[in-house]
Amino acid sequence: MLFDPRPKVNKKDLYDFEKEFEFLKKNIGEPLLVVSGLRRTGKTSLILSTLNDSDIPYVFFDMRSMPNSRRDLYHLLSEGLTDFLTRISNKEKFYKSLTKMLKLIRGISVDGFEVSLSWGKDRASLVEILRALDESCVEHGIKAVIVFDELQRVTGKLSVELANAIAYSYDHLRNLSFIVSGSEMGVLYRFFDEPNAPLYGRAYLEVKTRRLDKEKSIDFLKRGFEESKIRVNDEELEAAVDKLDGIIGWLTYYGYSRTMQNRDFESIWREAVTMARQELENFLKNRVSAERYRAVLKFLANGEREWKELKKKMEDLEGRVLSERVLYDILITLRKYSIIDDQNNFLDPLAEEAARNL
């Protein structure tokens, strides 16, 4: 179903991803694959659909909830391992071998399919977990994929620990390969491109998700509404496509809300803008100079894109001269988090609308 709001898990439900799908499927098993792209452009759907089509065992760790403590991280790791054991239970020998090895590691308990990781002093390291998985794979002639979805959401010491574990596995665990995804590209690439990063120098292959063009966006909506046996006039479709700017996640959200809740486009738009605003608020919550970021976002959303004008607006607002470094750092951070591009344009039209009312 094209308008299913959950990540797609089957190739037949993907739309206009043929090239990306074939690239990813062809290269599954390479040591490290990176799937990058803006929020809501189908990264998770692409990964899951490709892996399911390939019939290769995979562990999926969902980092979208932004783990900011070891407790949070180990809870997410527990969830991913529990899901994995559930899915491989039909491979009885592999399942029994892996559960046996996991039970031997201090800080891990396994009860049926459920895995629980201790995050205290007796905790297991991620390297120990990956070693156990690799040993089971070697024993049974199996290759497995480890997915870290939205890897860049892990920050601080935990991100270094995670990157070190991936780097160790890349070098030593030959029956494991990795797929990492990220929507905040400037933040994601720090894992690979900074000289002091644990993964620096490791080769990786990358596939990028993209917006749909106008023609494809209209076709996507028409097909989705046909599937749902709903008729929507061309004028409304054109308006929706113009405002949602080819971002398939927003197009899906509109199609689902229109189909299942019989709502008009304007009410769907307002609710989506509210969601986008909450995402900006979450971003601001972690900024030291949150009010400055808020002001810059509002000025950008209201059309002030030139450096000179932005600086003047900020100085007028604060009633003092600002160093160029202050504004520079704010704009660089907004670019790293894929909120704006190099010309200071918003990358998501809903984020732009939301920023006007921050």
Automatic annotation (TrEMBL):
Residues 18-248 form the ATPase domain. Pfam families: ATPase_2 (PF01637). It comes from the Archaea. One of its GO terms (molecular function) is ATP binding. PANTHER family: ATPASE DOMAIN-CONTAINING PROTEIN (PTHR34301:SF8), DNA-BINDING PROTEIN-RELATED (PTHR34301). This is ATPase. It comes from Fervidicoccus fontis (strain DSM 19380 / JCM 18336 / VKM B-2539 / Kam940).
